[in-house]
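hiii so um. not sure if this is the right channel but i have a protein structure encoded as tokens and i wanna go backwards to a sequence. like what aa goes where. can anyone help
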């Protein structure tokens, strides 16, 4: 494992302490916005593991999130299974079902891979409406799902705890040779294959990790909302939001998708009074385009550039 220094550990510690103290500094309404930012960060990190690293752009990520969400909702609401069992089972089902559907798609890339993943998302949307609506709730979905916590503060700590564990785990994982290999696949897959490494195995493992995070996030998300509806999950705007969060924050960094998720969530929230409709997506899409043109590596690189300048200034003063 390389690239982890005391400075990294200190920065993570400062961030965690700040976030733990946040409920004492902001209103309950702001906390609810942060909760959604935490979940979007989880989904963005999940997307970044497979698409940000390898370059296999997926438009079907809600397919994975939806499997996790629907599985735990059905098990806990329809069959009365304890949440402590339904969530782990939902993650396992997400990894298994996702691998079954997406493994053939990992042998293609580019626009073909993107179209196949988009087709899977649309297929899932149609299936949950027509197959066993007594279980899935059909077009209406399921309401009355067990919630894990009550109140904005408790739900905030729940979502933040999940997000920070996932973020640090994925950040550490991407610092290993595995993360380096995935980045190499994104740059030149043929060279990686020529070096003797199995790109299929690497991509499959990356996809399983991505599916695990997506399933975990989807399961906790439905137990936060207390309900689930097919159109809320399997929506092109949802996919768009996840991808833009990664691109704005900085793909292939783990920290970047977190930055992008918080930036987008608060941007959408503050635009809501002025643009209550879909116009908000046009505005933040334009902002994303400007940021991407100015700095293709996203907010993460902008922040790191300023941090490096600050260190140079401090070193000069010393």
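sure thing!! here u go:
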């Amino acid at each position: 494992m390389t690239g982890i220094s005391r400075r990294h550990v200190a920065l993570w510690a400062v961030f965690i302490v700040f976030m733990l103290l946040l409920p004492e500094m902001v209103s309950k309404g702001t906390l609810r916005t942060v909760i959604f930012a935490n979940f979007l960060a989880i989904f963005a990190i999940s997307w970044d593991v497979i698409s940000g690293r390898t370059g296999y752009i997926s438009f079907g990520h809600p397919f994975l999130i939806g499997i996790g969400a629907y599985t735990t909702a059905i098990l806990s609401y329809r069959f009365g299974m304890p949440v402590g069992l339904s969530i782990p089972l939902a993650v396992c089902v997400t990894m298994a079902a996702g691998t079954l559907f997406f493994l053939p798609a990992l042998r293609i890339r580019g626009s073909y891979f993107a179209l196949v993943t988009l087709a899977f998302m649309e297929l899932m949307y149609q299936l949950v409406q027509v197959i066993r609506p007594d279980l899935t709730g059909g077009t209406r979905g399921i309401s009355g799902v067990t919630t894990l916590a009550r109140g904005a503060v408790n739900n905030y700590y729940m979502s933040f705890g999940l997000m920070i564990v996932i973020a640090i785990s994925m950040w550490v994982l991407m610092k290993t040779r595995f993360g380096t290999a995935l980045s190499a696949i994104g740059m030149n897959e043929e060279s990686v294959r020529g070096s003797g490494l199995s790109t299929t195995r690497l991509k499959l493992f990356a996809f399983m990790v991505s599916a695990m995070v997506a399933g975990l996030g989807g399961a906790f998300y439905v137990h936060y909302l207390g309900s689930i509806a097919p159109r809320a999950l399997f929506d092109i705007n949802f996919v768009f939001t996840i991808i833009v969060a990664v691109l704005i924050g900085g793909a292939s960094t783990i920290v970047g998708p977190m930055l992008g998720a918080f930036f987008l969530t608060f941007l959408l929230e503050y635009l809501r009074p002025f643009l209550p409709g879909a116009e908000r997506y046009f505005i933040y899409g334009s902002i994303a385009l400007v940021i991407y043109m100015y700095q293709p590596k996203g907010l993460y690189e902008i922040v790191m550039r300023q941090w490096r300048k600050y260190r140079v200034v401090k070193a000069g003063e010393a």
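oh and The mean pLDDT is 89.
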